[in-house]
């Protein structure tokens, strides 16, 4: 508590929270003016089509709304939805597997503690060189690589791969896997570094090699956290792989975009509900798992 | 083996047998690993196609096209730099970067605002008949049916908001509001308010309750408890999450341009459509530069917030 005399010289005392608020308002104002926004842009241009879209939420379609196709092929939308959701899961799972492998290698290399802190005391100039120069170089390179992979969005990777290889399911998987490997690598490295160092120091003093110190000292302590984070990334991978459909891959986004462009709004809602249900189930399952892993 | 050593071995074996185990955990994780491994061999992803001659031809074309035109023509590095600075000064460069940044800022501010309003009814410790009552203040408190409905409705609403990806929200919103920056801002705000709401609610539940209990003791209501005790106490953690999500907003707002909103993605998509590979790569490179700067800035702020007290 500041006394009255202390506050006397400060006519307008603004605390740290006040500054946070003021700078948020100023930055927001800049962004608003820079984009030239006005609330009037929020008035919908074509109110009737929006009304139809929202009304369709109550009547998701199972059969195609295409009058030519109509009831000739029963439950085609439902089939598409299941097919698309299946592909969404497959794309997410395959890319997550690749990114776990990549992320683990990156995290392993980037863990500076493994090279410097709790390994064998160095003997001789060669070992010292290894410890003081080679180790930090490898660790820094791995960290920079992880950051670079992460900084390019998966959809941009998809664009690059489409330009480089042409379309094909594998390019989609790779596009997802690269940035995810970067993220996993970074987080794995942080978790490995933050795990308690006592077990690995004890192992080192018993004469364990570097690899043994890593796999039996560091890894077991960090493993539950790494697993929990990987489960969370699976959710993100599902969302990203749904979006990949907009670029021609056969995930749920593909069907959604197609139906929307044909103005078959009831079909769109079927796909939206399907995607929502999938994410909701995975969220509930992985949430329970993560709580169990944390204890 | 001596008697002592064998006794040690039995003890270790006993410890191993007594370790906490959960059947649910084990089955779930096994199923998850199985899914990951089987997905690669589902026949969906043909590895053999990758190195087909047609694809290699594609790759070769791509690689020869990547260099900026002036450098490809052998006009030297200066001409290449002039090419880059031309792009930077055109609407594709700095203005697009600025717009991307502005979209990310407005959307995260909006998301924060929505999330903080959803937080009190979505927090277990406030959404109950007697929140923070002195002497009764366990984490669970007294429960009642109506408050449980309120709590679970909020929690479900968070999941609903974040389940649909930003890109799909933006795609749908563009049809409603046309090609202004609003669809991107709203899409990012919707998705992130779901995520922030969940994180904020969990934070509020885990805050040390002493000051809030004291406030309740002198007769404060729910709103007062939240705004005068829980919000100020939790603000530094809220800010950490805020900046963490802002990083992702920058990343996503570059991409949303591909739908036709004027952020960086618009020009990247344009360059791809006109097969202007060098420009596409340069703009992607610019975007990742912005993401990196945002990451650095946000890491710095988060560090400052964490070490403020």
Helical segment count of chain A: 12
CATH class of chain B: Mainly Alpha
Radius of gyration of chain B from CA coordinates: 27 Å
Strand count of chain A: 0
CATH topology of chain B: MetI-like fold
CATH superfamily of chain B: MetI-like
- Backbone CA Rg of chain A: 27 Å
**Count of extended strands of chain B:** 0
Secondary-structure arrangement, i.e. CATH architecture of chain B:
Orthogonal Bundle
Order of helices and strands of chain B: HHHHHHHHHHHHH
Oligomeric nature of the chains: heterodimer
- The topology string of helices and strands of chain A comes to HHHHHHHHHHHH
Mean pLDDT of chain B: 85
Q: What is the third-level CATH name, the topology of chain A?
A: MetI-like fold
List the helices and strands and how they pair.
The complex is a heterodimer of chains A (295) and B (309).
Chain A: H1 4-7, H2 16-35, H3 47-55, H4 76-110, H5 112-115, H6 124-151, H7 154-165, H8 169-194, H9 198-205, H10 210-244, H11 252-261, H12 265-294
Chain B: H1 3-17, H2 23-40, H3 53-66, H4 69-72, H5 76-89, H6 94-122, H7 145-163, H8 166-177, H9 182-206, H10 210-217, H11 222-256, H12 264-273, H13 277-306
């Amino acid at each position: 508590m500041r006394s009255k005399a202390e506050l006397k010289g400060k006519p307008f005392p603004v605390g740290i929270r006040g500054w946070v608020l003021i700078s948020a308002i100023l930055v927001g104002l800049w962004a608003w003016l820079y984009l030239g926004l006005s609330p009037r842009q929020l008035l919908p241009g074509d109110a009737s089509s929006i009304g139809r879209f929202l009304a369709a939420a109550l009547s998701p379609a199972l059969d195609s709304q295409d009058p030519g196709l109509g009831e000739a092929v029963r439950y085609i939308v439902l089939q598409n939805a299941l097919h698309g959701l299946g592909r969404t899961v497959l794309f997410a799972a395959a890319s997550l597997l690749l990114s776990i492998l990549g992320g683990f290698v990156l995290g392993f290399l980037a863990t500076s503690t493994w090279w410097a802190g709790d390994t064998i005391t160095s003997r001789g100039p060669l070992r010292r060189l290894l410890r003081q120069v080679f180790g930090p170089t490898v660790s820094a390179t791995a960290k920079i690589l992880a950051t670079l992979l992460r900084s390019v969005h998966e959809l941009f990777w998809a664009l690059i791969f489409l330009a480089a290889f042409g379309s094909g399911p594998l390019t989609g998987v790779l596009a997802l896997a690269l940035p995810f490997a970067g993220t996993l690598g970074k987080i794995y490295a942080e978790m490995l570094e933050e795990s308690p160092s006592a077990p690995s120091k004890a192992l080192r003093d018993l004469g364990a090699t570097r690899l043994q110190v890593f796999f039996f000292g560091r890894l077991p302590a960090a493993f539950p956290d790494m697993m929990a984070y990987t489960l969370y990334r699976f959710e993100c991978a599902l969302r990203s792989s749904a979006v990949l459909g907009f670029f021609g891959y056969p995930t749920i986004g593909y069907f959604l975009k197609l139906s929307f462009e044909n103005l078959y709004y009831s079909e769109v809602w079927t796909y939206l509900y399907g995607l929502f249900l999938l994410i909701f189930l995975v969220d509930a399952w992985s949430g329970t798992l993560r709580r169990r892993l944390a204890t | 083996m001596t008697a002592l050593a064998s006794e040690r071995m039995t003890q270790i074996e006993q410890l191993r047998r007594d370790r906490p185990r959960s059947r649910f955990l084990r089955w779930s994780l096994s199923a998850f690993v199985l899914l990951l491994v089987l997905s690669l061999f589902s026949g969906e992803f043909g590895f053999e196609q990758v190195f087909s001659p047609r694809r290699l031809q594609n790759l070769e074309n791509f690689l020869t096209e990547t260099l900026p035109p002036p450098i490809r023509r052998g006009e030297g590095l200066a001409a290449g730099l002039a090419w880059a600075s031309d792009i930077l000064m055109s609407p594709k460069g700095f203005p697009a970067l600025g717009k991307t940044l502005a979209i990310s800022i407005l959307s995260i501010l909006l998301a924060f605002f929505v999330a903080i309003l959803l937080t009190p009814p979505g927090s277990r410790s406030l959404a109950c008949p007697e929140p923070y009552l002195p002497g009764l203040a366990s984490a669970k408190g007294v429960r009642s049916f109506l408050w449980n409905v309120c709590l679970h409705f909020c929690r479900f609403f968070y999941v609903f908001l974040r389940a649909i990806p930003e890109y799909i929200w933006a795609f749908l919103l563009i049809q409603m509001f046309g090609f202004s920056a609003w669809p991107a801002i709203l899409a990012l705000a919707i998705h992130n308010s779901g995520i922030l709401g969940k994180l904020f609610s969990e934070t509020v539940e885990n805050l040390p309750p002493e000051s809030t209990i004291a406030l309740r003791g002198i007769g404060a209501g729910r709103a007062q408890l939240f705004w005068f005790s829980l919000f100020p106490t939790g603000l530094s953690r809220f800010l950490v999450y805020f900046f963490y999500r802002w990083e992702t907003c920058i990343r996503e707002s570059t991409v949303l341009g591909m739908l036709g909103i004027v952020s960086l993605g618009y020009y990247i998509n344009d360059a791809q459509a006109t097969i202007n590979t060098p420009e596409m790569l340069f703009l992607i490179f610019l975007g990742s530069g912005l993401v990196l700067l945002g990451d650095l800035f946000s890491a710095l702020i988060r560090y400052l917030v964490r070490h403020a007290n």
